[in-house]
Specification:
With 262 residues, the protein is an alpha/beta fold.
Length: 262
């Protein structure tokens, strides 16, 4: 079990946030993700974290993804005085288990009973129709969420200051979210960028993704957006705490971890 203290607080103007690590880190080689060795000299071993993100701004308590275990996330939120009932919104980037199972408690009830759950229309319709097979405990998700679902597509603004961005390729209905506060932006990319190493190698195709070519196109588009806006970027599997900025380089893009970002 990951300790409830394994979290990281951050601030933007008018916004406070908490990155919550909800599983132990995994260490993979770049080659294992791609099935081959890419050109250049990427890191030999990649530290992959598993996190979700909580943000307070504009009078809302917003969770971006819910992790795998509601108890772990609730423990971290409790550490900053936020009860589950106080969460107003949950933004879902996509339907992988480590992003959505934390929406439920062990008995199948909603972990955040007062929150609207924002997710891509395509993902919800796949769950509801059975086109996307939900196995084991995940099969209870539609019933737990149905009364509070808000379906969106790219370009929608489900909350003041929140822009939905289509981010296809990794999985069905994958979304990124741009959260704007005063003149600053938090861009949460979910799994559209699996690791910060792909900032410098965005064109590399990952065989495990649903549509690897489209995923690469999405990465380049999101990186361009991040660099243009000077956004603080968060990724679900970036080395913890998974925050930083993207800037353009002579050959593409460069990742600046939070301690180096301006």
């Amino acid at each position: 079990m990951v300790a409830a203290t394994d979290s990281f607080r951050f601030r933007l103007r008018g916004m406070t946030g908490l990155v919550i690590r909800n599983l132990e880190d995994e260490h993979l080689s770049f080659e294992s993700l791609l099935g081959r060795t890419p050109p250049g000299n990427p890191e030999a071993t990649l530290a992959m974290s598993y996190s979700c993100c909580f943000v307070q701004f504009a009078g809302r308590n917003v969770l971006i993804d819910a992790g795998l275990d509601a108890r772990q996330v609730e423990g971290c939120l409790g550490g900053i005085g936020i009860a589950p009932a106080a969460v107003s919104d949950v933004l879902i980037t996509h339907g992988d288990r480590d992003h959505v199972l934390g929406l439920m408690r062990e008995d199948g009830s909603a972990a955040y009973p007062g929150a609207q759950c924002v997710l891509h229309r395509e993902l919800w319709e796949g769950w509801a129709s059975g086109a996307i097979v939900l196995r084991d405990e995940a099969s209870r998700l539609p019933a737990a969420l149905e009364a509070r679902v808000r379906l969106v597509t790219g370009g929608d603004r489900p909350l003041d200051g929140v822009e939905v961005i289509d981010a296809p390729g990794h999985g069905v209905g994958h979304l990124a979210f741009a959260m704007e506060s005063e003149d600053q932006t938090l861009l949460h990319v979910g799994d559209a960028l699996l690791h910060t190493v792909f900032v410098e190698y965005p064109e590399e195709e990952i065989p495990a993704e649903d549509d690897s070519r489209r995923a690469a196109e999405t990465r380049i588009r999101l990186l361009s957006l991040a660099a243009k806006r000077g956004a603080l970027v968060a990724g679900s599997h970036f080395p913890f705490p998974g925050l930083g900025q993207v800037e353009r380089s002579a050959v593409g893009f460069r990742w600046l971890p939070l301690e180096q970002a301006q």
